[in-house]
Write a structure and sequence with these properties.
- There is one protein chain.
- By secondary structure, the chain is mainly beta.
- Strand 2 and strand 3 form a beta hairpin.
- Among the domains are: 55 residues, no CATH class; 62 residues, no CATH class.
- 15% of the residues lie in helices and 42% in strands.
Length: 186
């Protein structure tokens, strides 16, 4: 706090020294005097405050992983085949390749029959179509979830954790790195 100006006391040695210094300064300033005017130099002391950063404590942050069993029902799609035997019984002169009609494969099956003459007979066709079958499968495995543990023994009360509220549900969840920086900066 600044000290108020007070009248000099003759018994105060510090004040006496100050007066003597002031007189010496006045004598030196007489060289700047004109005949009608004297110049006095006025001085003033000021306080200057400086700040310095010092470490007041530390925070140790580590993560722990908890493992818990988890179950999830997953709908899987598999295909089964339905094969229908369709008798044809026609005599043909050459073999035809398998073909697709309306999502169904038609695969010709031939046989040779022994008669007086040999002939090629289309005995039947296989009509194959895909039938999607939905089934529910149970998948079991362990899942891991990490969370931060902050040990602030050196700086007790200076670390403030902030969790999102229900109103902030629309905002994307910050990453682990963002949450760590927020906790350190708080």
């Amino acid at each position: 706090m600044a000290q108020r100006n007070r009248a000099p006391r003759p018994d105060d040695p510090t004040m006496t020294e100050r007066l003597e210094r002031t007189d010496a300064n006045l004598e030196r300033s007489n060289a700047h005097e004109s005949e009608d005017r004297k110049t006095l130099e006025l001085r003033e002391e000021q306080l200057v405050a400086e700040k310095e950063r010092v470490q007041s404590g530390s925070v140790r942050i580590h993560k722990e992983t908890e493992v818990s069993p988890s179950r999830l029902e997953v709908e899987a799609l598999r295909e089964e085949l339905e094969v229908e035997h369709v008798p044809v019984g026609h005599v043909v002169s050459e073999r035809a390749e398998a073909r697709e009609e309306g999502g169904m494969w038609i695969i010709p099956v031939y046989e040779e029959q022994v008669v007086v003459t040999k002939r090629l007979v289309l005995r039947e066709e296989l009509h194959v179509r895909r039938i999607p079958v939905r089934e529910t499968q149970l998948v079991e495995d362990t899942v891991r979830r990490e969370h931060l543990v902050i040990d602030d023994a050196d700086v007790h009360g200076r670390v403030h954790e902030k969790y999102p509220t229900e109103d902030e549900g629309d905002a994307p969840e910050p990453s682990l790195l963002e949450r760590t920086f927020r906790k350190v900066l708080d």
